[in-house]
Design a protein that fits this description.
Blueprint lengths: L7 E5 L4 H12 L3 E5 L3 H8 L6 E4 L6 H15 L4 E4 L14 H30 L3 E6 L12 H20 L5 E8 L5 H4 L11 H14 L3 E4 L1 H11 L3 H9 L21
Parallel strand pairs: 1-2, 1-4, 2-3, 4-5, 5-6, 6-7
Length: about 270
């Protein structure tokens, strides 16, 4: 990779497949990178690629005090970032009829939605005060464009995130900071490994990482990965709602917590 547009980056969810791919791209380009996640060994393996330019942090992204402490330590070490990527996220099936799934909904909102705000908050003031160009990136999902049967918690968290990023973008128009909404379709990561349905446009995380960083560097505010899955989603949205729902109801549902193929949701308490 050529030298990065960015000099100082913070990435949450850096131990997941997509987060690791983003981190590797930035580290290889000479960027200083704060690696934020819950799996210490995976983060330390990344940091070993450039120990003089990386630091490892393992806070719960939904804990504002832990995130503020992380941000303060990183800025004391390396200064104010010019790129903050709120990538931490969890996924899982959801059934409103199951009382236990309400805890899944709550935790998913805490990580996927609240976690983005707690990631941006401690950096926003210093980034604005510096007056330099910078980017705040929120990793949402195509799933946030329309609710899908059996996936209400995830879809709701990502739809809320898209609206939050729209609001923040409007607020920051007078500044040098850009807000970028990333809507991946299907990436080959642990979050999709248990899916039992067809995943059109499945993209390798390394390619997705390159496209995301290139899009942010160009100033693209809405980045869809890959673009063709966005076109497919928009085409389906033109169908009458009843027909659209019938098509989706015919697909296998994402595994719920406790079912085979379900992914772990850290901090979930039922």
């Amino acid at each position: 990779m050529t030298r990065s547009t960015f000099h100082n980056a913070v990435i949450t969810g850096a131990c997941g497949g997509f987060g690791q791919a983003l981190a590797r791209e930035l580290i290889a380009s000479g960027t200083h990178v704060a690696l934020v996640g819950l799996q210490g060994p995976a983060l330390h393996a990344l940091a070993a690629l450039a120990p003089e330019r990386c630091a490892v942090y393992t806070p719960d992204v939904s804990d504002p005090h832990a995130m503020q402490a992380m941000a303060a330590d990183w800025m004391a070490r390396c200064g104010v970032p010019d790129l903050v990527i709120a990538n931490a996220g969890v996924a899982g099936g959801f059934d409103t009829a199951q009382a236990g799934d309400l805890a899944t909904l709550r935790r998913m909102l805490e990580i996927n939605l609240l976690g983005v705000a707690t990631t941006f908050q401690p950096f926003l003031g210093p980034m604005r005060a510096g007056g330099q160009r910078g980017a705040l990136v929120g990793v949402a999902s195509i799933a946030g464009w329309r609710g899908m049967p059996g996936n209400g918690a995830y879809c709701a968290s990502k739809a809320g995130l898209i609206a939050y990023l729209q609001s923040l973008r409007a607020e920051l128009r007078p500044t040098a900071l850009g807000v970028h909404t990333v809507s991946p379709g299907y990436l080959r990561t642990a979050l999709t490994a248990g899916n039992r349905f067809t995943m059109p446009g499945l993209l390798e995380p390394e390619e997705a990482a390159r496209r995301l960083l290139a899009g942010v560097a160009r100033g693209t505010e809405h980045i869809v990965l890959p673009r063709r899955i966005g076109w497919l989603s928009r085409a389906l949205s033109l169908l009458p709602a009843r027909l659209h729902d019938r098509i989706l109801l015919g697909q296998p549902r994402k595994p719920r917590v406790g079912e085979p193929g379900a992914t772990d949701i850290p901090g979930l308490r039922k």
